[in-house]
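Figure 2 data, in text form.
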Amino acid sequence: MITLTERAAAEIRNIMEAQGKTDAMLRVFVAGGGCSGLQYGMAIDDIVDEGDQVFDSHGVKIVIDPLSLGYMSGSEVDFVEDSLGGGFKIDNPNAIRSCGCGQSFATDEGQAASGCGCCGSY
């Protein structure tokens, strides 16, 4: 299961409303890349593919493919603000390491690369 904090759900609903897609879902996925081997992705989507799982969290539907769910099961998406602005942060209990900016991660099965192009950490 993937969950959202109330703050993340509110931000996602705002994005969907601004795009005129209030009936859409949040697609969360994992792709290869980043300094730690895997990176997170999110998109507004209105298609559920065969095998996808759909969860509801604070009134937002979340859709995820089976491979990504294997890497992200139990994760929580939050929206945080700091002096540089706001953004989504994923708390993934399966990640054994991540880069400094939190966009890239590795699990027990993954191999870390040597440096991060997104945040400059090593």
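Caption note: Confidence is low (pLDDT under 50) at residues 111-122.
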